[in-house]
Structure formats: C-alpha cells, structure tokens
TrEMBL record:
GO terms for molecular function: peptide-O-fucosyltransferase activity. It is found in: Endoplasmic reticulum. Coiled coil: none annotated. InterPro entries: GDP-Fuc_O-FucTrfase, OFUT2-like. Gene3D superfamilies: 3.40.50.11350. The keyword Membrane applies. Keywords: Carbohydrate metabolism, Endoplasmic reticulum, Fucose metabolism, Membrane, Transferase, Transmembrane, Transmembrane helix. The keyword Ligase does not apply. This is GDP-fucose protein O-fucosyltransferase 2. The chain crosses the membrane at residues 16-37.
Length: 471
C-alpha cells in the first residue's frame, strides 16, 4: 500500500520537498472534502455511478419527529419510508423497488444470534442496504417457546440514529402469522467448509421461506482457514463484494433447489441474503473478542437496551443490592460464571476440576477493585454474581464470599423465557467492573459493553483444569 510516508521513502532526496508540498495539498483536500461530506449526497452519487436507478435513502432522515426516542411506534414510522405498508402475506408484496435490502438467519443461543445480527447490520452499512433483522429464535431454549423481536431487546431508533442507517425487522416486512411460503435465492457461506453436514441455515419459522442456496466462492474465507478450516469464517468485504456486479469476473455455482418447491434461484439482488453471518469478521477469528472488531465498534456498541429492558434490569439490581425502588444504584462489580453445559470443553477433565473456580474469580474481582481504585479513585464493594449454575451448594459458596445475585424465581412467569439471561446481561452491562468466563460469548459481549459504555475494568477468568487461571 502507498501512503504519504511510503511515497516519501521511495523518492530521491531532492524531490522530497515537492512531494511534501504535494502531499500537504492532498491532505488539505482530504480534510476539506471530509468536512463537506454529506452522507445523503455521497449515497446518491455512489448509486448513480453504479448505473442503477435512483434509490430511496437508507439513511436516517434529517428532519426526524421529536417522537423518535424510546417510542416503539416510531420504528413503524421508519418502516413507512422503506416498505409499501404493514406486514404483508408475502414479503415480496411489501418491498419497494427503489430500496435494497439485506438479511441473514440465526443459529445457536441468544448471544450467537445477537452477534450474527450485529454482523448483518454492519454488512448493511458496508453495502448501503437496509438490514431486515429476524426475530431471536428459540433454538436453544426449546422450539415451543416464542420468538422475540430484535426491537423488544435493542433500542432500534437509537441505533439507527447512532449509525445513520435505517433498519427493519422481519415482523414489519412479512406478517409473522402468514402461512404463505415465499421462495428466495440466498448465498450459502458455510457449506464449502461444512459440506458434509448439510448445514443449511433456515430462517425463523415465522418468516416462512423456501430457500434456494448458491454456494459462495471459496475466496470469501479467511486465508488462514483455507488450508485447515476449523471454523467457516468469512471476510466482511469479500461477503460485501457478492452484492456488487461490476467486479464479478467469476461464474457463480448452480443454485441448489429449494427443499419444498424445488425452486432454483440465483442469489437475490433486491433482498440480498446470506445463510449465517456469525462467523464473519475483518481480520480475527471470533473477532468480537477483540478491541479491533469493526462490527462491535460501528454497530454493536450502539445496540443499547430498550428503555423497558433497562428499567427491568435496574429494578432487579436494586432488589439484589437491597436498595429502595428509586434510589441511585451505587457502582458495582458484576461476575458471569458460565458453567452448566460447558463440559464440552473439558475433554475428560472432571467437571469439578474443569469449570471456572470461585477462588480464581475472587482473585480477578480483587484485581478489578484495585484497578477501579487506582484508575478512577472509586472504591467498589458490591459484587453481583450471575450464572447458569443450578447447584445450591455452589450458590452457598457464592454467598460466603459476601456476593449477591438476582432472584429469578418469578422472571419467566412475569416476562417470559427469554428474560432471565436478558436481565442478567443488562445487569452485567451496567457494572463498573466485570469478571467473565473465558470462551463464553455471553461474557465476551458483556465485557465489550462494560468497556464501551462504562469505561469499566474487566477481566476474563481462564478455566479447563485446576489452576488454569494462575498467572
Ligand atoms: N439467566 C442466565 N442464563 C445464563 C447465564 N449464563 C448462561 N446462561 C444460559 O446459557 C445460554 C448461553 O448461551 P450463549 O448466550 O450462546 O453464550 P455462551 O454459550 O456462553 O457462549 C444463555 O442463552 C442462557 O440461556 C446467566 O448468567 N444467567
Ligand atoms: C410515539 O410516536 C407517535 C407518532 O410518532 C406519537 O403519536 C405518540 O404520542 C408517541 N408516544 C409516546 C409515548 O411518546
Ligand atoms: C446485477 O446484475 C443483475 C443481472 O444482470 C441485475 O439484475 C442487477 O440489477 C445487478 N445489480 C446491481 C447492484 O447492479
Ligand atoms: C425470591 O423470590 C421469591 C418469589 O418472589 C421468594 O419467595 C423468595 O424468598 C426469594 N428468594 C430470596 C433468596 O430472596
């Protein structure tokens, strides 16, 4: 890559001055054009260059009504810009020809789905398309459980404003009770690695699609994963390039027929669709674990809880700490001890020697306290434990440390099956110090929130054998 400093190095000494003047002019020009940059204008320009018909803006309109913040109905106002009307029988009836859309499907537990949707929205930014986000789907908590709208959890108006991109939910596009099965052509980004398993990702039941998949080219993969693929990670910009025609010098594979109607459809250009974006990143595997994560920095950190989730979590926090309903919440440290089904990682090590140890957690809590005192001059005494552990003896040991935990006895009954972990996540994200369990995505995203939102002190505890966290 050539940048200003490299240009200087490659020139003979006498021409340095000229190059310096030239690069200064270029820098001034770059700064001026950045200052004058108008997202709406650039948007139109980039699309007219592509030779396509003029598109409706996918960005947040300049004159917003005052009612946008924390007002669920304003989400539906935004939909009126991007759809023909209210949720329809077939999604195709509702898409506007002058808007381009992008979508993808869920897999695994809540956090995996949240990461996949964060990546979907980031790819929406990268491709200038409106993301249509599926509901959270009960793949781990039992298929008899209800699906959950993204907008019930995350504050979409605030997100749209922060990232300057409009967002839709599938439940706005297609009536979730519609029995109509739409056909759609999508990219299969997983199969070239996990070929044998037939892992065709499916949308939530309420979206009701019959999908014809086209296997994406091999070069979407991380170079490091081509030879010895462990995880089917794909690169954001390689995925994005599938949305553009003018660089396409290759011929896509034949689409697989859809399972129900045996429709053979190339990947749709109006509603661009990928099977799964959980394994996507720019440079690192499982990139949400690292500060570099562009999906986190450009999207994830702007996915704040809805006011309702925030209020519920705060009332649980107050109850846990034993403070009055409207009293201010003191700074606290949150712990996430991920146990329950993590024995898959233990590989023969007995669970009692494998799972994250309380003594190791307690050491990291002390680290966090010390950092908060040194860095912020704040003494934090309160520690809130959150965990999926069921064993009452383990909880007795937590009590002996002087720590407390939210009482979820009535949470499912009051709010439904998604809420115990949601409330625990929101409690974690409100902490000034966070201690999580290594290899848990649940912990990892809470760690990111505490860093991005609260400038908090954070640690991950290692585990897998006795003394795993000794360092
Ligand atoms: N209520 C509650 N549930 C938890 C907690 N930790 C884990 N779970 C449950 O275990 C699941 C973990 O799955 P996931 O979110 O994908 O995270 P990961 O498996 O830790 O990477 C969650 O969705 C919860 O159902 C916790 O601290 N509190
Ligand atoms: C929400 O927005 C709608 C229209 O934008 C408005 O009529 C309504 O009063 C708002 N509700 C609240 C609670 O602010
Ligand atoms: C890509 O090519 C297809 C078929 O030629 C065309 O229908 C579509 O509009 C093109 N997409 C873009 C973004 O130009
Ligand atoms: C938790 O809540 C339930 C029901 O509200 C209550 O009966 C129980 O005593 C509470 N447990 C603790 C430890 O406070």
């Amino acid at each position: 890559m050539l940048d200003a400093t490299n240009i200087l190095k490659t020139l003979p000494p006498k021409r340095w001055l000229a190059a310096l003047v030239l690069s200064s002019v270029l820098i001034v020009f770059a700064i001026t054009s950045t200052l004058l940059w108008d997202p709406a204008l650039t948007h139109c320009v980039s699309h007219s260059l592509a030779g396509a018909a003029p598109l409706a803006p996918v960005h947040v309109p300049a004159q917003k009504s005052d009612a946008t913040k924390d007002n669920l109905s304003s989400i539906y106002d935004t939909a009126s810009l991007l759809l023909h009307g209210t949720a329809s029988r077939s999604f195709k009836e509702n898409l506007r020809p002058d808007v381009r859309y992008i979508t993808s499907w869920p897999s695994e537990g809540f956090t995996n789905q949240m990461i996949a949707y964060m990546n979907l929205i980031y790819l929406g930014l990268v491709t200038d398309r409106v993301p249509i986000i599926p509901r959270f789907t009960p793949l781990h908590i039992g298929s008899d459980k209800p699906e959950l709208d993204f907008g019930e959890v995350f504050d979409i108006p605030r997100l749209q404003e922060a990232i300057n991109l409009l967002i839709l939910q599938w439940s706005q596009v297609k009536d979730p009770t519609s029995r109509f099965v739409d056909d759609l052509g999508c990219w299969n980004t997983q199969n070239s690695v996990w070929q044998t398993s037939g892992r065709h990702h499916t949308p939530p039941r309420s979206v009701n699609l019959d999908i014809s998949y086209t296997t994406a080219p091999e070069w979407i993969r991380y170079p490091s994963q081509l030879q010895n693929p462990t995880f089917p990670h794909a690169l954001f910009w390689a995925l994005a390039s599938l949305a553009f025609n003018d660089t396409r010098t290759w011929t896509p594979q034949e689409p697989d027929p859809s399972p129900t109607h045996h429709a053979v459809l190339p990947p749709d250009d109006h509603l661009l669709c990928y099977d799964l974006l959980y394994y996507a990143g720019a440079h690192e595997l499982f990139e949400f674990n690292y500060e570099i994560s562009p999906a986190w920095r450009f999207v994830g950190q702007h996915m704040h809880w809805t006011a309702r989730i925030q209020q519920i979590a705060e009332s649980y926090t107050r109850e846990t700490l034993g403070i009055a309903p409207h009293a201010p919440i003191p700074p606290y440290i949150a712990v996430h001890a991920r146990r329950s089904d993590f024995e898959v990682w233990c590989k023969g090590v007995p669970i009692k020697d494998c799972y994250v140890e309380l003594s190791a957690i307690a050491r990291r809590v002390e680290d966090v306290k010390a950092e908060l005192l040194a860095r912020k001059g704040i003494r934090v005494d309160e520690v809130i434990m959150t965990s999926d552990e069921k064993d009452p003896e383990w909880w007795d040991a937590v009590r002996e440390l002087g720590w407390r935990w939210p009482n979820h006895t009535r949470t499912v009954e009051l709010y439904g099956p998604w809420y115990p972990p949601l409330i625990d996540k929101a409690i974690q994200s409100g902490s000034l110090g966070f201690v999580g369990t290594d290899r848990s995505t649940f912990s990892s995203i809470s760690l990111r929130r505490v860093r991005s939102w609260n400038d908090g002190a954070v640690r991950m505890v290692l585990w897998g054998r006795p003394g795993a966290d000794d360092r």
